Amino acid sequence: MPVEHRLALTVTAAIVFVIANVCPVVHISLKGLHNEATMWQAAAALAHGAAAPIAVPAALTIVLVPFMQIALLLWVLTYAYSSRRAPGFAVAMRSLQALKPWSMVEVGMLGLLVAIIKLTSFVQVAPGPGIWANAVLMVLITIVAKSDLQWLWELTEENHDAEVAAE
User: What is the C-alpha separation between 60 and 127, in angstroms, rounded?
Assistant: First the structure.
C-alpha cells in the first residue's frame, strides 16, 4: 500500500479517534433518568470501587496507546510522504513496534458489546456515536498500526543515506 494511502488512513484514524473519545459510547435510561458515558468516563468510572486496579490498564490499552500509535504514525508517515526520514525515526519506529501488543481497541469494543448486552436486561440502552466510531477505529488501527512497518525503513533508507552523504 503506498504511503499516500497509509497517511490518508492514519489521518482518518485520528479523526475517528477524536470522535470515539469525545462522543458518548452508550446512552442509558431507567425510569426517566438518563445518563451517557464516553470512553474516558468509562475508564474513570472503573477507578471507583472494586474494579479500581484495572482502571489504568483499561485507559492505557483503549485510549492512550491507540493515541500514541496514531500520533507516531502521523509523524513518521508525514515525513515519508515527502520522501524523508522523520527526526527521531528510529525511536518512533521502535515505539510503534513496542506499542503493537498493547493497543486493544478490539478488546475494548468486545467489552462494550458485552456490557451493553448485559445491561439491556436491567435498563434501556442505546448505542451512541462513540461506539460506532470505536468500531471504525478498530478496523483502521488494525490496518495502519498493526501491520508490518518494515517497508518504512526501506522507503526512507535511500533518501536518508543521500541526505547523510550530502552533509
Answer: 23
**Strand bridging mode 124-127 / 33-37:** unpaired
SS3 2: coil
Q: How confident is the model at residue 111 (pLDDT cuts 50, 70, 90)?
A: confident
Letter string b/e over residues 25-58, b meaning 16 or more CB atoms within 10 A of that residue's CB: bbbbeeeeeeeebbbeebbeebeeeeeeeebeeb
**139-152 pLDDT, tens per residue?**
898 888 767 777 77
C-alpha cell of residue 89: 525515526
Condensed to tens digits (0 to 9), the pLDDT of residues 95-104 reads: 988 888 777 6
Q: Across the strands, what pairs with 127?
A: 26
- Give the Cβ contact number of residue 119 at 10 Å: 14
The pair phi, psi for residue 127, each rounded to 5°, is -65, 140
